[in-house]
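chain below, 429 aa
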Amino acid sequence: MGLVSLALFSSCSSSAFVVKESRVIPEDFAGMVHAGNTRTDEEYALLNNMGVSWILATFYWGSIEPQQGVWNFSNYDSYVDRAKQDGKKIIAVLAYDTPWMYSEEDKKKPNPHIRPKDIPKYLNFVEATVLRYRDKVDVWSVWNEPNIARFWKGSKQDFIVLTKAAIQKIRELAPEATILAGAFSGLPTIPFVSESYVGYVKALFESGAMEQANGIAFHPYSTNPQGTAALYDSLVKLVTPYGFQDNIWITEVGYPTHGLYPSRVSEEKQPAYVIQTMCTLAARGARVICWYEMFDKYNQEDKRTADSEHYFGLLYPNYEPKQGAAAYGLVSRYIGGMTYQPQSLSRDGVPSSIVTYYFEGENNRATLIIWKNSGKQTLRLSLPGTGHVLHDAVTGAAHTLEPQTTLAIGTMPSIITWTMNGDSPSISN
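prediction:
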């Protein structure tokens, strides 16, 4: 993920946070990064229970072609076969260099960077991998976070040349494939660490590299969900002139629960951030939202390090869920396949600090997700219909609720589901 530092995207008003237009949420919008690697029934049971449709993995060139012309697909064969066994859709990131491509002199220079003269070698890897998995991998994504120095130390132009050639190669081999470009980090310019994604995005489109792509991959990492929403909105504005505003895939987003990153959030607050982030990105039109990531590196009782990269997970390595795991499952289960309908919820005297995301679906299903940006406030809820359930964001536990009720709304989102009877719901002060 390469989040070495982070600007504080913390200012975003609640009115800007809320989306005003209706939006159909894809049934399979929920994804997970670094999931499925254990191949165990236990992990896949968790993925199924959490409503994960997509899993994302990096297909490392160095692992697949450890020596020039010597191919080793055994690890990815078992990964892909296990995922397909449980009906998971796969996003395969074709990335990084391989040691044999460098001379001894090259190895003294900053890497990774595939120079234009080495692109044919990379394309051999792309061809071999796509031919092997084109009937099983659902989406191909070219590279990862090139605007982060950890992942790309070459020039912007060299990356554009690489991307264009890779997309063309994939399209030749798999004409119906879904292809993503970019996977840009939302980090701003940080000297020697990162460069703004803006210049990369413009260069991709202006070069014609995106003409055969289906979508742009983005990682809107921020210190809070409001900042994440603001980053997404900025990308929408950037790609709208190119007609790609509805073709944005969030292939990483998340917050660590330990370490030194300024985006760190307490585990107690993790469920709120999961719900708010997934709601706002889905309502804004993200095709898929892949949470970063499935597992922490250490169990809860283990000695911790200061590296936040180890603590983005929703579960511990021993499969024990962190507090955000149930929240992810609730959102994926109760807004996937629904239509976001902000105009169908009446708000009478409710302040803007109360954030609501209201969804309607087939068979008169309804979901209301509501929270207050700070403090608490008791509201009157009128939710005509039957079968009202209040879902606990931390545990996932279900509690029955009356159609006419009062509810204390706080910073931890309340998730309410029910079957409508045709009348519109309302909340009032």
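The first strand starts at residue 23 and ends at 24. The two ends are 43 Å apart (CA to CA).
thats it, cya
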